[in-house]
Known about the structure:
With 94 residues, the protein is mainly α. It has one domain (2-93). It contains 2 helices and no strands. Helix 1 (2-41) packs antiparallel against helix 2 (49-93). The longest helix is centred in the last third of the chain and has 45 residues, at 49-93. It starts with a helix and ends with a helix. The model has no long low-confidence stretch (mean pLDDT 80).
Amino acid sequence: xxTSKNTSDSTGAANLVDSIEDIEQSTLAAVRRxxxxxxxxxxxxxxxxxxxxxxxxxxxxxxxxxxxxNNFTRKMFDAAEEQVGARKGSKSxx
Length: 94
């Protein structure tokens, strides 16, 4: 039985990792589309400051969004770990 529990735990962790990787890939694809759109609307000129400022601002926003997502995922994972630990503790008390 412990084997199926461990398999279930590792499958859950693998699913979480896969989900995070999917989010990261989606974020990168969105950034690529954004840059393509900016390049189409504001072609590179000799004075490229406005275009660069827009792209830099977008990257800052993406960093904040991904950071918030990672922080949320970490908190969820920590909370799940606490719950599993509490359940294991209560079973050993029985």
